[in-house]
Amino acid sequence: MNMIVPESTRGVSARPPVRWRLCWENDLELADHIELSDFFRKTYGPTGEFNAKPFEGHRSWAGARPEIRAIGYDDRGVAIHIAALRRFIKIGQTDLLVAELGLYGVRPDLEGLGITHSIRVMYPVLRDLGVPFGFGTVRAALQKHITRLLGRQGLATVLPGLRVRSARPDIYLTVPPTRVEDVVGLVLPIARPMSEWPAGEMIERNGPEL
C-alpha cells in the first residue's frame, strides 16, 4: 500500500488542504525518514526536554517500529502523522490481537484538527487489515481533551484508569527493562463490537510502545 487518499481538511478555516499518504514501512525512502525525523523533533521537542531525542540521527520512530503509516502533507511538508502496528496484547488472561495506534504528531499550527482526521483516515486501513480492534493510549492528563475530540464524536471508546506495562526499547543498566504507566486507553471496534473487549485494568504490551 502506497497511495494518496483524498484530503480531509479542505474548507476548514483558511488552512490549506492536507493530502494523506498511506504507506507500508518498507515503502519509505531515505528522504522520507529524514523528513519525518525532522517533523517529529520539531513536534515533540517543545513537549519535553527528552521527547525529541529518539528521533535523532534521522530516525523516524521512537520505540517499536510501525507497520503502516498515514502521513498528511500540505504545502509546508509533513503536517500530521499517525502509525499502526499489529500485535498481541494481554488483558488479564486474554491474548488479544489489536492494531496499536501511535507515533501521533501534528504540526503546532494544526493543533485541534489533526487527531480526528487521523483516526478517520485510519479506520478503513484497520478494516482492510482485518483486526478486531484498534488500540492506543494517551497520558491520563489528556483524558478530557481526548474525550472531547474522539469520545463524544464516536470515533473511539475512551477507557480511563488503565495501566500498561511495556518493554523499554533499549536496555539500561540503571533502570528495569520494563515500565508501567497510568494511561487512558482508546479503543476502536473494527471487526468485533466493544462488548467483546476484555475486562481488566492492567494491559501487557509485551514490547515497546509504538
UniProtKB/TrEMBL annotation:
Pfam family, one: NodA
Compartments in which it is found: Cytoplasm
PROSITE patterns given in the database record: NODA
Keywords: Acyltransferase, Cytoplasm, Nodulation, Transferase
Cellular component GO terms held in the UniProt record: cytosol
Gene Ontology molecular function terms on file: acyltransferase activity
Domain of life: Bacteria
Enzyme kind, highest EC tier: transferase
EC number: 2.3.1.-
InterPro entries (UniProt xref): NodA, Nodulation_prot_NodA_CS
Stated family: Belongs to the NodA family.
Function: N-acyltransferase required for nodulation. Acts in the production of a small, heat-stable compound (Nod) that stimulates mitosis in various plant protoplasts.
The protein's name in its UniProt record: Nodulation protein A
Organism: Bradyrhizobium canariense
Encoding gene (name): nodA
